[in-house]
Amino acid sequence: MKITRFLLVAFLAACQLIAFSQTSDKLPGKGLSEFDFFYAGERKLHNMYIVKNGKIAWEYKNANSKGEISDAVLLTNGNVLFAHQFGLTLISLKKKVLWNYDAPAGCEIHTAQPIGKDHVVFIQNGDTARLFVVNIKSGKTVKSFPLPVRNPKSVHGQFRHARLTDRGTILVAHMDLGKVCEYDSNGKELFQLNVPGIWSVEPLKNGNFLVTNKGFVTEFTHKGDTVWNCPLKSIQDFKISSPQVAIRRPNGNTIVNNWFNQWSSSVDLTNPPVQAIELTPDKKVVWILRSWTAPADLGPSTIIQILGDKGISENVHFGEIK
């Protein structure tokens, strides 16, 4: 009886993998081989990956971790900075901890970006929420100012994503306020735009910015005009239910990450969710990522950084801080 039950379980697992493989074969693009990329996502454990030539070339897994990875950046020297809800950590490719910051009790950190080799800018959700710039060599805070929130007591939903611009300012996605704001390095608000349900904001080279919310990916000007908009329900055949970070590639295409909530459900390997999708300016789907099984089970998706594109790095400034 035990042998029969074992064979049945093995047979069903094989059927799942076959179904998954057949589904994956029909996807647009070349899957993991489309380009080399860095990958991280919100999940129960801290997992991050570098994929090269269609295979995992580097991985970071911490079975003892707590808190979700909401933001992560691969630096040009190979180090990785990641925000993991209850703190920030900078590691080398050899997984040595180079710097760490623990969020105070009652606070959370979901977004961070390096500035040069010596500084990190991040937002600390809390009562009061604040933006910080810390010198990671000395450990000293060199800049700090408060940020408005809807409810100081509801810490978790205040902020998820912020990015520095080429102008030395910072764009902040105020998740609980449903708007995007731009601040200078002294905390002066320069611009705001209502975006209900906002999760992320990415500055673009043309001076505009790209936002994701619950149902749309939209490019706005600083006048609030819509330049490009993609209702995610309009994407046929591929369900994007939980968009997180969207990025604009140099070729004009847009990549949207699609998160899966491990806390509320389990992945159905016969019909696994899309992890990321690439759209042309006319919204044609040219690439789909759906990699949920060994040897490349990437898990839920929040951040994809294309290694061949000149995207986010530490080569930025915030006011006079470089």
Give an overview in words:
- The protein starts with a helix and ends in a 16-residue tail after the last strand.
- Mean pLDDT is 92; it is low at 6-24.
- It has 322 residues and is mainly beta.
- A hairpin with a 3-residue loop joins β17 (209-212) and β18.
- It contains 1 helix and 24 strands.
From the structure above, extract its key features.
322 residues; mainly beta; Neuraminidase; 4-stranded antiparallel beta sheet; 24 strands; globular
Would you kindly provide a brief summary of this structure?
This protein has one domain (about 35-260, about 295-305): 6 Propeller (Neuraminidase), CATH 2.120.10. About 5% of the residues lie in helices and about 40% in strands. It is built from one helix and 24 strands.
Gyration radius over CA: 20 Å
Strand order of the largest sheet: 3-2-1-24
Q: Biggest sheet, in brief? A: 4 strands, antiparallel
Order of helices and strands: HEEEEEEEEEEEEEEEEEEEEEEEE
CATH superfamily: TolB, C-terminal domain
Low-confidence stretches: 6-24
Number of strands: 24
Helix content: under 10%
Span between termini: 67 Å
Name given to the CATH architecture: 6 Propeller
Kindly estimate the percentage of residues that lie in beta strands according to DSSP: 35-45%
Q: Given the C-alpha coordinates, what overall shape results?
A: globular
The domain tally reads: 1
How confident is the prediction overall: mean pLDDT? 92
